[in-house]
Specification:
Elements: H1 18-28, H2 32-48, H3 52-79, H4 100-106, H5 110-113, E1 117-121, H6 128-141, E2 146-150, H7 151-163, H8 167-176, E3 179-185, H9 192-205, E4 210-215, H10 222-226, H11 229-239, E5 243-247, H12 253-268, E6 277-278, E7 285-286
Parallel strand pairs: 1-4, 1-5, 2-3, 3-4
Antiparallel strand pairs: 6-7
C-alpha cells in the first residue's frame, strides 16, 4: 500500500545519501571532529558491543578535547610569542639563584586570578625571556588571554597609536588582556613621552590584570630607562604591590652554548680550535 500526503517522510530521512546530509548538518553545527571520527568510532563501538549513548558520549568527548586544543592554539597565536617555550627545556640547575618551587607554583597561573605581577631580574642571557614565555604558555593552556611584547616595541606601539588618534583603543585592549608580558625593560632607554605612556599602561592594569616584566637592571637603575625618579617610583609602587620577584643572576646561557659548540667543533677538527675572549662587561665574544 502506497503512502501519500502526510504519510510521506521528509526528503533525505529514509532515502537519498545520509552520509552527505550528516556531513552537511555536522558542518552547520560546527562539529568537525564528530564529522571526522564518527565512522571509525561507530566501527569500534560495534565491535565492542557499546550501546548508542556511550557511542555518542565518545564522539562528544573527542569533539570537546579537540575544541579545547584549537582554542589553546588560538590563544597562543594571539599572544604573539616570538617562540613557544616550556619549562621542559629549561635548566634550573644553571641558575641557582632562581626559586624553582616558586616558579612551579606560578605555572599553575593562580596569580592571574589574584591579579598579581611577576618581575624577573638578572643579567643578560640567564633565561628571563624563556621563563616569561613558559609562564605565558601555561596561562594560555589554563584559559587566559596573553599578550607578549618587548618594552621598546610596546612604547613604539603606544606612540604610533597616539599619533594616529587610536591610543585609547589600544590602552583598552592592553587593559583587557589577562596577562601582559613586557620583555627586556632596560635594554633601550625610553623618551620622556615613551616612559609616561608605559607608566600609564602599567597603571591602568594595576589590580585589574597581571603583568610579567623582565629586566637586566636592578630596580635602582630603572630611572636611567624611564628618565624620571618620580615616574620610576610610581611605577615600582604599582608593579611591586602584589608581586613575585624572580632573581636570575648567573652565567649566560647563550655564552655557555656558544662555548660548547666551539669545544665540540675543536674536538671534531683540532685545526679549527680558536681562543675565545669574552668581554665581562658586554658579554661580547671575540677571537684574537
Amino acid at each position: 500500500m502506497s503512502r501519500t500526503g502526510d504519510d510521506t517522510m521528509p526528503v533525505g530521512t529514509m532515502a537519498g545519501t545520509p552520509q552527505i546530509l550528516l556531513a552537511h548538518h555536522l558542518k552547520q553545527l560546527k562539529l568537525p571532529t564528530v564529522l571526522r571520527e564518527y565512522e571509525k568510532v561507530a566501527r569500534e563501538c560495534a565491535q565492542g558491543g557499546v550501546d548508542y549513548p556511550r557511542y555518542l558520549l565518545r564522539l562528544l568527548e573527542l569533539e570537546l578535547i579537540d575544541r579545547e586544543r584549537r582554542t589553546v592554539e588560538r590563544r597562543i597565536r594571539a599572544a604573539r610569542f616570538p617562540a613557544v617555550k616550556s619549562f621542559d627545556t629549561f635548566d634550573f640547575t644553571a641558575i641557582p639563584s632562581l626559586n624553582k618551587m616558586l616558579v612551579l607554583e606560578l605555572v599553575r597561573s593562580e596569580y592571574i586570578l589574584r591579579r598579581e605581577n611577576i618581575i624577573a631580574l638578572g643579567n643578560s642571557g640567564t633565561g628571563k625571556t624563556h621563563v616569561a614565555l613558559a609562564l605565558g604558555l601555561a596561562a594560555c593552556q589554563k584559559g587566559f588571554t596573553v599578550t607578549f611584547t618587548t618594552a621598546a616595541a610596546l612604547v613604539n606601539q603606544l606612540l604610533e597609536a597616539r599619533d594616529e588618534r587610536r591610543l585609547i583603543k589600544l590602552q583598552r585592549d592592553l587593559q583587557a588582556v589577562k596577562l601582559l608580558i613586557v620583555d627586556e625593560l632596560g635594554y633601550v632607554p625610553l623618551s620622556p613621552t615613551g616612559g609616561e605612556l608605559l607608566f600609564e599602561t602599567f597603571s591602568q592594569r594595576y589590580e585589574r590584570g597581571s603583568t610579567i616584566v623582565t629586566s637586566n637592571l636592578p630596580f635602582e637603575d630603572w630611572t636611567a630607562v624611564l628618565g624620571s625618579e618620580r615616574l620610576t617610583g610610581a611605577l615600582l609602587d604599582r608593579l611591586t604591590h602584589h608581586v613575585s620577584i624572580l632573581t636570575m643572576n648567573g652565567d649566560s646561557y647563550r655564552l655557555k652554548e656558544s662555548a660548547g659548540r666551539r669545544r665540540a667543533a675543536a674536538r671534531a677538527d683540532p685545526s679549527q680550535a680558536t681562543t675565545v675572549i669574552v668581554d665581562p662587561d658586554t658579554g661580547e665574544i671575540t677571537t684574537p
